[in-house]
Amino acid sequence: MMKLSPGKIHELETSINMLKEMQLIFESAMEIHSLNEITNNISLAELFNMFQNIDIKNNYPIYEAFLQILSHKFFINHVTKNVSLYYTILEELIIKHSLLKVFHYSTITAIFYPNPILLLHINTYSYQNCKEFILNEKQLKELKINVEEFENNTKIPNNEPYSNIGITQIIREDNLNAFIQYLSNENFDLNSQIVNPYLNHEITLLEYSMIYGSINIFKYLWLNKALCSQESLKYSIIGGNYDIIHILEDETKYLFEEECLRISIKYHQRAVTEYLLTTSRNNFSLSRKNKLLFYLDAFDFLELNNIMEEYLIDENMGMHEIVNEMIPLRISIVKTYLLFDFFLHSFDIDINYKELIHSIMNNNFKFYFTRNLLANLISHLFIMHVLNITLKFLIYYYRRVILILISGIVFLFLDHSTCLLINGIILCYMIHHFIMLV
């Protein structure tokens, strides 16, 4: 068993508990946002007080982890009615807690990449509050830009991130009469596919009704023999509607697979996760390590904290032993700066640098490798003399971003074609040096 610093372990335990509390308050605010604005304001006030009490702008690991929670929650909820809640929280962080100063823009982009609506709001809000210092009417006229048109094009977007006109809104609202009317007027095929902007691919009307738990429209489509596949079942897990799940269990030839268990964790459908684990029909099991991996992957610090408490009580394990359970997962669990920093600076842990470098070379990282996180890795690799002193390369691909480290200088290229060009020029030389290194 590896010896870990008690101070670092206590710090990690405290941080996870703090994030659990923040997540609880945030989820409470989400639940009541559309029901009672006054109560919601109280919940938000509690969250904002916590930002202040922990001095979040000077607590980078907690700050970054909370942004990851915020981004992941927005991505998995698919519901437009709570968008204003996210906007309010982001504005609080921008105005009072220096969001745009604490985080480099590349880090913000990496965190919120799955949610362009939130990125747009951050960018637009930032512009709205600083434009008077950088633009004036005379300058705009000189550029032959109509000021009024310019203002209209840069207003804060409304709370509906996507058009609410048409079949998608009808399904989200589970308005069966409007749905039937729409089908008759538009001569719509029951098996037509529509684009879900959140999932960024086409799904059937039946699957769309599953995602939003629209039981009335689902039943109508089901009774009218809309097509259903094995793939469709996972959308019922995303929606979390028990009536839909039970119909699929009882009336299809398909079975819920273990992937559905992971999806339920990813989408924070905790009751569905429990159901899948306990129902005899599925006979699923979840190992201790997979629990840690899946809940870390889902940025669910509430469940992660609960798992740790269960281990401490039920299995008489100390935090030291729990952390050692996490160590073999290595790169797989590092999606937040908090955990990356913990593992990187727990020097008794044998980080597999060969695996790390090969993962970088093979573009196998499946987490948000933010600018600060990468800088920390580079610094550590230099200190530990893992990289050749004369020629040091560390390349990392994150969609449209390539960071290249040559002789201690970091270049950030946001243009994909430029990245590919430079990469092509040095690729053979780099591979040669990396092979010699590892």
Automatic annotation (TrEMBL):
It comes from the Eukaryota. The chain crosses the membrane at residues 373-395, 401-431. InterPro entries: Ankyrin_rpt-contain_sf. Signal peptide: none annotated. SUPFAM superfamilies: Ankyrin repeat. Keywords: Membrane, Transmembrane, Transmembrane helix. This is DUF3447 domain-containing protein.
